[in-house]
Amino acid sequence: MDWMTFGWAGIRLEIPANWELSGLSGDDKEGYLRLDDEDMPRLELKWAKSKRKKPDLHKVLDEYFKLVRKNYKRKDTKLNIQRDVNLIRDEQFFEGRSVVTFSWKGDIRANGAIFHCETCKRITIVQIMGRLKENLRAFTTRILSAIEDHPIGQNILWSAYQLNVEVPRRYRLEKYRLLSGYLLFPFVDGSRKVSVERYGPADVTLANSDLESWFRAKYAKAIRGYGFQMTLTTDDGDERFALMGEETRFTDHIPFTPVLAIDKVLRRKTFAIRLWRCHKSNRIYVVQSIAKRDAVKTAEIVAKSIRCH
Predict the structure, then answer these.
(1) Considering the domain 3-146 in this protein, what is its CATH number?
(2) What pLDDT was estimated at residue 291?
(3) Which stretch of 33-47, 165-179, 257-271 has the lowest confidence by average pLDDT?
(4) Which fold does the domain 158-305 belong to in CATH?
(5) How far is CA 127 from the centre of its chain?
(6) What pTM did the predictor assign?
């Protein structure tokens, strides 16, 4: 079985490659996500910041199982729950964490853990689900042993529908869009912005246009008000465009030295865009970065983190 790294809101997991995002809510402070395979829900993840230094994890778990039991009342199925089950072999998992493991069985079975991290102050619940006759221990051990509940390093991994992208951790995710033919991840850090978009299938999107013409028409509003340079390179047959520029001002045509002083005080916004079409995956990728400095560097970091096939 193939495995992959999945990330969201600073949490990283190793999961089977055929598990995909099916439910999502909340933000980096408190949220929920679910991963399914082609047959059933496979993993649930909940996280929330805790204000207490040592929260009562058993009490939090009691509230969690109230919801589980509520669902099973409708099915007229007896629910068997156990706690402090031996699910984690790696002793490093417990370093800097308070941990309670659990398992339960109804018409499906599940293994999981709730833990509080002393570093990020998060309470995280992760639950792996399977059929009654399925051996979940191998899945559970691998997933729990590798889970990270806060970023290690300068970037945060965000994943959805075979898109994996790393963004500097200072950026906060805004309202995203996850559609079958279009993904949008917009991030902000004060006045700085960076966004990642994926379109597909590319052969349909570009049926009546080349990539550059499509971009100029699609992003006419976004690039309005900026002077920019656009360069083209090819990589393994894929077209890659790089745009770099800065906002224009009405003073640009005034040949006075004081204007230069104004520019030094009121730094112009710069922007950078990385645009490419991946023929192997049949998708189009657009990374935009806007900032008063480091726009190009940020666009490069984000674009290079994307494996498009």
Answers:
(1) 3.40.1000
(2) 93
(3) 257-271
(4) Protein Transport Mog1p; Chain A (3.40.1000)
(5) 19
(6) 0.89
